[in-house]
Write a structure and sequence with these properties.
The chain is of the alpha/beta class and 312 residues long. It contains ten helices and twelve strands. It is elongated, with a radius of gyration of 22 Å.
């Protein structure tokens, strides 16, 4: 949350139906809780263009707040609907179509004197709170050109509302197509300092039909890439982690790789989706992007796009 808030958190957007994201966020956050959710989503909910990781973070933050507001247990409500904001509406957002997510709890509520402070960084009324959850959520929604509001009464409960601009784009990947694995052939180099990451990534790539090798840092990756290219067995693509503690990371590695091979097909990878390079990867010389932890379907699509030269 601190990284998202402090680094600017440029979202990596794609057009989705937010239904599944909300369902997954609720299920994940309420595991082991004595609080339950009453969920209502209209059938034809409009698509939105969002960063799934960041919006999941917002939903989870608000659900955690609802959960903690009801220590004795209870039921809170989540309502999702389509709304059209007109010019004369009092909401401080541009007129147009929005998806509204309303989260209502029956908890202790927020005192009126604190309501104007709750989105401030480090402000918290909780003993163990960081004061970053709502500040981060506000920052994320603002960068999605949306709005987050709050209403609350002490002893009655709290209502948070999120407004996200509806997208005119069609949803490119339905659940069925997301499960489709794209196999292929070729040699892939994976650069990451963590052995468990390279082990898993290489196994995934082999499962998809590729040959895979790994490097622990940028220096090793450059040496291996040059050696294999000189031997007549060049890599068809390379997956590069952005951050390598104590070694050459992704930003420097791609610069030097482009000097060696201007046609290098590089995919940038990171566990922090809010890094500016992840949001604007082409500017730095990368062809595609994958977020850790890797999903087999997403990895298969990124590698397939890059090797086939069809990255959008």
């Amino acid at each position: 949350q601190l990284l998202t808030f402090s680094r600017g958190g440029a979202p990596i957007k794609k057009t989705i139906s937010i239904r599944r994201l909300i369902e997954d966020s609720i299920e994940f956050t309420l595991r082991g809780s004595n609080v339950r959710c009453n969920l209502s989503i209209v059938d034809e909910l409009w698509p939105v263009e969002v960063d799934e990781v960041q919006i999941s973070q917002v939903i989870q933050n608000l659900i955690i707040n609802a959960d903690q507001a009801m220590p004795e247990g209870g039921i809170f409500k989540v309502r999702c609907q389509n709304i059209t904001v007109e010019k004369e509406d009092p909401l401080p957002i541009t007129k147009g179509k929005y998806v509204k997510i309303e989260i209502t709890d029956q908890g202790v509520g927020i005192p009126e004197e604190y309501l104007h402070k709750i989105f401030d960084p480090y402000f918290t009324t909780k003993e163990k709170g960081s004061g970053l959850g709502l500040a981060t959520s506000y920052s994320i929604i603002k960068r999605h050109r949306g709005l987050i509001t709050v209403k609350s009464e002490t002893g009655t409960g709290t209502i948070f509302c999120i407004y996200l601009p509806a997208s005119k784009k069609k949803i490119l990947e339905e659940i069925e197509s997301e499960r489709l694995l794209l196999t292929g052939k070729g040699r892939i180099l994976v650069m990451d300092d963590e052995a468990i990451i390279t082990d898993v990534a290489c196994e995934m790539l082999k499962h998809l039909g590729y040959e895979a090798a790994f490097a622990r840092c940028g220096e090793d990756a450059l040496e291996i890439y040059k050696r294999e290219k000189a031997s007549g067995k060049p890599f068809d693509a390379i997956i590069i982690d952005l951050t390598i503690p104590g070694g050459m990371g992704g930003k420097e590695t791609i610069k030097k790789l482009l000097e060696i091979d201007p046609d290098v097909k590089a995919i940038v990878s990171s566990g922090y989706s809010n890094d500016q390079i992840m949001a604007d990867y082409r500017r730095y010389g990368f062809r595609d992007v994958v977020v850790k932890p890797y999903k087999l379907t997403e990895l298969s699509k990124a590698v397939h796009r890059v090797i086939k030269g069809a990255s959008e």
